[in-house]
Amino acid sequence: MRWFLFLVAGLWTIAGILLLVVAGKAKEISRKLVKNLKAISFIPLITGILLTFSARSSRLYWFVIVIGLLALAKGFFFIFAPKKKAKPFIDWWLKASLGIYRLWGLVALALGIFFFCRVA
Question: What is the pTM of this model?
Answer without folding.
Answer: 0.88
